[in-house]
Amino acid sequence: MVSTEALNELRKTLRKGQQAMADWQGGELAVAAVPGAGKSTGMAVAAAIAIAKFQLHRQKQLVIVTFTRSAVSNIRKKVSELLKNLRLPQSAFTVSTLHSLAYTIASHHRELSGFGAGETIIVSESQKQRLIRNATNLWVKENPKLYDLLLEGRSFDGEDTERLRRQTVLRTDVLPSLAREAIATAKSSGLSPANLREVEAADGGYILDIAAGLYETYERLLRQEGAIDYDDMILGALRVLQNDSVRKYWQEKVFAVFEDEAQDSSPLQTKLLEILALTPQIPLPLREEEQVPFLPNFSGRISENDGLKNLMRVGDPNQAINSTFTPADPRFFNEFCDRCQKFSQLSTLDQAGRSNRNIMRAANFVLHWVNHSPEYAKNEKPFRTQKIRPVDADDPQANANPEAIGNGVEIYAPDSIEQEIEMIGLRIKKLYEQDPKLSMAILVRQHNQGRFVAESLAWLTKEYDIKIYDVEQSDRRSRVPMDMLAILQFMERPHSPDNLKSALDVLKERQKISSQQDLNFLASNPEKFLYPTLLDAPLTALALETQAKCVGLLRAKIELPLYNLIPFIAFALYDDEAGLLATADKLGDRLNQQLVGNYSMQTVIESLKEIVDSENFEAVEDENLEGRYMTGGQLTIISLHKAKGLDWDVVFMPFLHKRLCPGEAYIPEAVKFLGDFGLPDVTRAQIRAIIHEDVIPNAEEAWKQCSYLKQAEEFRLLYVGMTRAKKLLWLSAAQSAPFSWNTLENRTENAPICPAIAELARKFPEFQE
Length: 769
What we know:
By secondary structure, the protein is of the alpha/beta class. It has four domains: about 5-110 and about 230-350, Rossmann fold (3-Layer(aba) Sandwich); about 125-225, no CATH class; about 370-390 and about 405-465 and about 635-765, P-loop containing nucleotide triphosphate hydrolases (Rossmann fold); about 475-615, PCRA, domain 4 (Orthogonal Bundle), CATH 1.10.486. The protein has 33 helices and 16 strands. The strands form four sheets. Strands 3-2-6-7-1-8 form a six-stranded parallel sheet, sandwiched between helices. The chain is globular, with a radius of gyration of 27 Å. The N and C termini lie far apart (about 60 Å).
């Protein structure tokens, strides 16, 4: 047994806010942490103390869950080291992702999970996209009336060319995107297709009926393949826990649940943890209002009267930056925090040991300004109100709030993006000369921005040997098999609108054609686009350039040996990008070895499909990714989303224009025939209203709500980026900037800066340089 003195010494290694976690005595506890507060460290120490205090073991474990596999590894290592020092059993705790935990429960009781008796296939993201495309095509065939209603749109003169264009838009863009939103949002909240139809029947509209049909068709195809997706893991575990004896077995095995990154949980994931965290009691009959809607025959108690919930949830709703493309919604964790606060079970970790005081002042100002903005805080405040505070003078962390470099925050408004990146390069050179061990990063919002930065700053490596690690480059390499597959499928069947559209998307992404054209229109009639006659309407100059690229690819199929096509496509797409070319070479070698004696266009395409579906092809990396992002003496170029959880001595955040942060509602011309809204976004907003039991908005109101939520998330993303910096934070936005980063030629003069940064500069003139 561990002595009280030993546990007290361990507790003293934490600051005041973290100590509230270590003092947990059971029951529910919400922990809202600011960036840099050390929530993972606090959770690890709290876990070790709980294991010692409650004498946990293999048959009564502490279960720790978090969002990513890398976070699992990090927390497991911290807890293991603490237990080793305390001479406590390593078997007293488990760490896993939510999906892994759910799959463990479901697979242990396969007969109850609904997975079937055989081996269960878990579909990858690319396989899921394939199923969604197939579900879309099948839904179109099975629902001609609804599909025709979409084709008609607001008005339609019946012209054949316009019909073809609309068909391409719907089948390749709108309907697959709508299906993705409906499946992700509804399924992760336990809503079935029938649930969507029931609500829509009362509402009188048609959008949720389309969503329900696509969702239902996808589920049918998924079952036909004997497969499940990640949301099915959670549903399977919940089905298992309907059984009284099985639920009691798991509840007796699980003493408590500690959840990290709780702001990223979906409703079903939270429900699973709540059930596991309950101390088992004799089940009482459920009142009707306590029935779980997505599991109507649930026989076990999940209400407050059930017993004690040993559940600690730790997160930061102000770092919820995944809610526009995952089912996560910070509203859920905020509601949990508010509920715990009523019972004095909320702890706020507001002391942060990372940034200097001026960086904290800047981040706090942005949070406060956005939350009090009449334009951006209309219905729900984008941020939870919590200030970042510096640590105490006697804080156990050494140099927790480091001295600032200069003023600690610098705000610039150069004339052009070229001048902006040149200024950044010169600042990096100067900083490197002063301290070659500084860790530095440039955070970008879009992939094309990262490419521009990497190319513009290559001189730092050539002339001054400053290492640049472009994280986005590795992302681009991982897409090489998908690029090759799209181009080869186009070469194989160029008259397929789907194949042509996919090839055009790749060419646009690789900046080989201009994005300032309607690619759906070009793809709607491949023959007229690729081989127009004298009777066809002449193509625009941009369309002619695009046509030449596509015809060049088709000519290569005729003129080159088949085994030369992949190298040819690689040079056509990647020019002199060495990493991408090396990855394409590796892919070509693998196909050559795999298909020896059976090398044909068809077998190459089939093999590429397998590689893309299985996601088992590793790109050629210059160095191991782990531990490389924050290396001293290195400049890392990384997206804002991937920067979460990381920090650097110096952080540069360029291109902070209002158009991207917070952005504005934008409807592409190609889809305006449907209305002044984006159909997938409307679907998401309407399903969100069902989940929160709000009034179901009509399409126009749902579009406004969705636009507001996206803007809120962009502000949170800005906040996350700002709080990555320790000693110096650079914020800038050029006065002349590209309208779209896909083509740098078209510039917007006097481009408005992000309003929160403009107000920050006005409030603190000393930050302006």
